[in-house]
């Protein structure tokens, strides 16, 4: 079974990694240490604070105050790859600084097991060895896992893994000690175990594990930092590692509740008169923040679609525990009291409840048979324990699962195997191995799966799917498996295999040869476990506690992988989440939780350099002077905004102020709230078919550059124009003058522009730099060398041999090629043979699909009707201009028109990107001929307002359509915000 294929250099992960590295820009490395110790990191003067401020400003987290501690925080939402991010950070810190000993601290055993599997995986080691052009050489991770010593009578004076880690001297490896919170707080770590009498020492010095580990000058990485409150015992023990730096990675951090204040500083109260509380995360030296909103809006995780059971007649009645005396429990429902003893069924109180008993009780806590603990004042929803509700939810989850299989296992570009996770409390009913329990959860579940498969096999024609489903039908028991905490001590071979596969072997679970696709658990998997292909989570029973909704859905947020174990990100994927009627507000709570992390945007009172840079980031073609000129009427002579000046600035440059302001529509939604599929008007596709097949032909971009010498001259021209954009890394010498002032010695830092010496510190040697740049930018090493040599007097490349320069050249040269195409050089296209099908509109045989994904047509929805000539029955769009085209201004000459789905027609452009227009029209001309029209809709006033990149991409499209127009004439037009489509069509007819 192939391992996961890891994707390198994902922007959101790279920003986090680069932010950590930037902390150590221009530091001094004290290597006068023992061979088994990390070098000591030393900062001159205010360098550390200066670096931190620059990083926060660049990452827009300047609202978080800095501290003088050694803690560095990286905030990344669940499912965005923080474990991979801190792993690559270790490789980078090793490469750049020579740090080779890290301690990774996790809160629980389940997270520890997942981290261990990740760090030890062969595919991860292969990834770092082969996917980075030799950047890390043969460096690999050596993992040391600290486990509890089970034989208390023969405990060693110190765990062997700690001894090995402390004594390790091989700097060709990254040595990582993995430890959980329970172990950190153990007597073993404090040196108080039996067998540790202090007579045996590591390094002839240390008998206490904490002290031995501290001697290595480690870097500590803390996973899930919200589990380690700074006032808690575990955090105090973490300090005993005496880490040079503590890197905390998590989606949530330790928090504190504060009163919400109004503009006058007074407490805000709700309708009941209670003070509204706000939860504030307590960051320390926050470097980077990837919020939940960023993750959802940027499609870094799946969206969420909630299925909530609505029970007619449920008037909100709840069973409340009001008293406990140790022998009897008193419940109340609708003012009527019920007394239950140990072993009695709660269906005495409400008939909707199935098998739910009082298991244990004392005078303060009652335990139900499903493991939920109740205290006085706690309530439960009777319908949450109804088998009728349970069965309905389970049936719907099974039905939706096979809908997903139909969609994901017949897709083009690699099949995706979906998994469904069920949270249950009826473990006995699920582990009914001999089918002895009539109507058990397992029996009912298998009957439902069997019925659904038989129903679908009657009409399914896809050969692979028929075989896949028939295999499942032949042995229903193999389609599911479970993991519960008591399974750790179970000796049943079948259960042991299930547990190992679910907990430790993601690859096998995702194999199409493995029929298992349903996983059952009792909240045990809610933390520390995830699988990228979990597409459904069904809560058949409440968890019994109020938890973060984001944490609940976290098991299924990651983007999926296909059958080749490669991450798939070209679709808008959703996680289906099923809850009962006790959580009718699930969508609201989750949305509120996501939006609560919104950072209040900065309100600028003046046109500052910071604001100009913010605008230039969104509009890179604009110079400072151009921006100032456009805003001249909105500021006074001191650049202070006049009344409403900043509001008008935001209207002029809207892209500069697009941020994680709030969650995009449709990222979290109720099932049925908006159509996920759009029906196609099949008869109309026949009119569009010829044009659709032509524009879906594959084409290769050709650079009309005659030889390598001409390419060299182009590359040299790019370097000359951009030499000032490279960033050097190095160290400066800071002079301190010691003198006597009022009888006391004092030091004054002195700097001179003439005397200051900047000593470069290169993170790569010249050959490594050329090799990596060659492989990243796809330019011959010899050509690169010739270019740098030719510009040696203009660009001293020896000062810039670092990763940042490679990224700058790659991105910069790609953009330069796009902007200078058709001017500095020509481009052309050549057709690629083969079938164009399947497409977004057709199957493998070229037959029109009955429906397509709504998300492919647009992110906004209008419940009104489209024009009669539109290819689809519903209105999805991305802008008001598109909306008007679809719903207004009917043109009688139009036979059929369609919105072109996102990424369906990928026209290659210079520099490596692609481009896709917006609309395709078939028009009947006055002469009776057919006009094929492709339209690009732009919400800008005219072509002068188009960014240069957009203008160049449109030129590429025109060039390609001229090529295919040799067989069929195709006219390409751009529609601007004030252009009605009727005028665009009229203009096209005149060509």
Automatic annotation (TrEMBL):
Q: Which UniProt keywords apply?
A: Endonuclease, Hydrolase, Nuclease
> What's one GO MF term for it?
DNA binding
Cross-referenced Gene3D superfamilies: P-loop containing nucleotide triphosphate hydrolases
Q: Cite the Helicase/UvrB N-terminal domain residue spans from the record.
A: 11-254
Spell out the Pfam families in the cross-references: RE_endonuc (PF19778), ResIII (PF04851)
Alphabetical list of InterPro entries matching this protein: Helicase/UvrB_N (IPR006935), P-loop_NTPase (IPR027417), RE_endonuc_C (IPR045572)
Task: Give a yes or no for keyword GTP-binding in this entry.
Answer: no
Q: Where is the Type III restriction enzyme C-terminal endonuclease domain?
A: 870-974
Question: What is this protein called in UniProt?
Answer: Type III restriction-modification system endonuclease
């Amino acid at each position: 079974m192939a391992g996961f294929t890891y994707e390198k250099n994902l922007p959101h992960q790279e920003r986090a990694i680069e932010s950590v590295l930037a902390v150590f820009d221009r530091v001094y490395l004290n290597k006068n240490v023992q061979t088994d110790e990390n070098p000591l990191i030393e900062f001159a003067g205010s360098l550390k604070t200066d670096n931190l401020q620059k990083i926060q400003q660049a990452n827009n987290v300047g609202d978080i105050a800095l501290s003088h501690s050694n803690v560095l925080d990286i905030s990344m939402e669940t499912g965005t790859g923080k474990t991979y991010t801190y792993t690559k950070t270790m490789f980078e810190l090793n490469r750049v600084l020579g740090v080779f000993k890290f301690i990774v601290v996790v809160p629980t055993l389940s997270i520890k097991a997942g981290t261990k599997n990740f760090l030890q995986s062969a595919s991860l080691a292969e990834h770092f060895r082969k996917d980075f052009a030799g950047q890390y050489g043969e460096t690999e991770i050596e993992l040391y896992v600290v486990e509890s010593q089970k034989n208390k009578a023969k405990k060693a004076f110190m765990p062997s893994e700690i001894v090995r880690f402390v004594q390790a001297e091989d700097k060709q490896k990254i040595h990582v000690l993995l430890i959980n919170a329970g172990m950190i707080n153990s007597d073993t770590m404090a040196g108080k175990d039996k067998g540790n009498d202090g007579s045996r020492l590591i390094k002839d010095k240390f008998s206490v594990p904490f002290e031995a580990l501290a001697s290595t000058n480690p870097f500590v990485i803390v996973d899930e930092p919200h589990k380690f409150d700074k006032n808690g015992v575990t955090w105090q023990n973490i300090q005993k590692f005496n880490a040079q730096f503590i890197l905390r990675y998590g989606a949530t951090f330790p928090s504190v509740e504060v009163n919400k204040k109004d503009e006058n500083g007074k407490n805000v109260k709700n309708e009941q008169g209670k003070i509204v509380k706000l939860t504030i995360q307590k960051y320390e030296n926050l470097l980077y923040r990837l919020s939940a909103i960023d993750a959802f809006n940027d499609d870094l995780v799946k969206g969420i679609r909630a299925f909530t059971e609505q029970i007619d007649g449920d008037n909100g009645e709840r069973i409340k525990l009001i008293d406990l005396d140790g022998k009897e429990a008193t419940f109340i429902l609708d003012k009527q009291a019920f007394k239950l003893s140990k072993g009695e069924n709660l269906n005495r109180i409400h008939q909707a409840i199935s098998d739910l008993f009082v298991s244990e009780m004392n005078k303060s806590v009652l335990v139900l048979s499903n493991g939920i603990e109740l205290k006085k004042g706690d309530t439960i929803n009777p319908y949450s324990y109804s088998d009728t509700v349970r069965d309905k939810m389970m049936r719907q989850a099974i039905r939706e699962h096979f809908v997903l299989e139909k969609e994901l296992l017949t897709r083009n570009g690699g099949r995706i195997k979906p998994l469904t996770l069920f949270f249950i409390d009826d473990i006995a009913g699920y582990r009914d191995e001999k089918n002895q329990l009539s109507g058990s959860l397992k029996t009912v579940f298998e009957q439902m799966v069997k019925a659904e498969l038989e129903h679908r096999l009657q009409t399914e024609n896809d050969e692979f799917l028929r075989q896949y489903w028939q295999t499942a039908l032949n042995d229903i028991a193999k389609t599911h498996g479970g993991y519960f905490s008591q399974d750790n001590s179970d000796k049943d071979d079948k259960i042991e295999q299930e547990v190992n596969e679910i907990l430790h072997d993601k690859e096998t679970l995702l194999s199409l040869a493995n029929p298992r696709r349903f996983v059952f658990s009792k909240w045990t998997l809610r933390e520390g476990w995830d699988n990228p292909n979990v597409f459904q989570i069904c809560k058949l029973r409440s968890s019994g506690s109020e938890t973060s909704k984001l944490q609940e859905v976290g098991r299924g947020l990651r983007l999926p992988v296909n059958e080749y174990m490669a991450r798939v990100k070209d679709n808008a994927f959703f996680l289906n989440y099923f809850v009962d009627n006790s959580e009718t507000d699930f969508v609201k709570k989750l949305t509120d939780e996501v939006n609560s992390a919104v950072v209040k945007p900065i309100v600028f009172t003046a046109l500052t350099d910071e604001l100009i840079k913010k605008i230039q980031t969104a509009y890179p073609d604009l110079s400072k002077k151009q921006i100032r000129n456009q805003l001249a009427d909105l500021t006074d002579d001191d650049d202070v905004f006049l009344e409403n000046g900043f509001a008008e600035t935001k209207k002029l440059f809207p892209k500069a102020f697009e941020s994680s302001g709030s969650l995009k529509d449709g990222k979290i939604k109720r099932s049925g709230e908006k159509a996920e599929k759009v029906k196609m008007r099949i008869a109309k596709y026949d009119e569009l078919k010829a044009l659709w097949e032509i524009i879906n032909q594959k084409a290769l971009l050709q650079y009309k550059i005659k030889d390598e010498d001409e390419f060299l001259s182009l590359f040299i021209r790019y370097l000359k124009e951009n030499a000032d954009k490279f960033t050097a890394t190095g160290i400066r010498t800071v002079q301190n003058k010691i003198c006597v002032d009022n009888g006391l010695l004092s030091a004054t830092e002195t700097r001179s522009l003439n005397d200051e010496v900047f000593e470069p510190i290169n993170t790569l040697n010249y050959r490594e730099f050329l090799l990596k740049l060659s492989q990243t930018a796809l330019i011959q090493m010899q050509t690169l060398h010739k270019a740098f040599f030719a510009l040696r007097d203009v660009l001293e490349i020896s000062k810039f041999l670092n990763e940042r320069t490679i990224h700058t050249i790659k991105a910069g040269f790609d953009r330069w090629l796009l902007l200078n195409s058709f001017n500095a050089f020509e481009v052309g296209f050549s057709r690629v043979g083969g079938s164009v099908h399947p497409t977004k509109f057709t199957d493998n045989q070229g037959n029109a699909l009955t429906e397509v994904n709504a998300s492919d047509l647009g992110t906004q929805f209008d419940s009104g009707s489209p024009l009669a000539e539109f290819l689809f029955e519903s209105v999805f769009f991305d802008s008001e201009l598109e909306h008007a085209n679809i719903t207004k201004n009917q043109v009688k000459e139009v036979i059929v028109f369609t919105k072109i789905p996102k990424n369906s027609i990928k026209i290659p452009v210079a520099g490596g990107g692609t481009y896709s227009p917006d609309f395709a029209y078939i028009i009947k001309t006055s002469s009776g001929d057919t006009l094929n029209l492709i339209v690009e809709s732009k919400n800008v006033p005219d072509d002068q307002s188009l960014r240069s990149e957009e203008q160049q991409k449109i030129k590429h499209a025109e060039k390609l359509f001229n090529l295919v127009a040799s067989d069929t004439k195709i006219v390409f037009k751009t529609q601007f915000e004030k252009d009605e489509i009727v005028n665009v069509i009229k203009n096209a007819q005149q060509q």
